[in-house]
Amino acid sequence: MKVKRTLLEIILCVIGVGGSFWVEFVQGEIPCKLCLIIRYSLAITGAVFIISLFYEKIKMLSPFPLIPAIMSDIVLIINETKIGKQGICEGNICQTPEFLGIRASIWALAIILPLIFLSLYEIKERLAKIKKEKSQK
Q: How far is CA 99 from CA 40, 104, 106, in A?
């Protein structure tokens, strides 16, 4: 079950990073600094999950690269709601492109939140296992 969960986490990271490259190269959008932070955070998190397939203890670190991603996405969403005001993006109003009628920033959030919850669940399980082992000694 843990391997399946880890593979799901890796797939979510690949979808997030792949989606950001799709927006950049297929739709022709130049990513802002916040979008790049989200992309790099998801790539690092994916690498942590891949390494955790072979070395399970490293999975405890998986939520930490997601912190900049969630913070950047929240700032991006807040910035998108400022209609008619200049955003923090490269000299223009910060608007992510849409896919299926939903902004890319919301899609990113839909990937980041499950990753955070799955990571925290894994940590909870790991800590319970350590506590159980200590109580048996």
A: 21, 7, 10
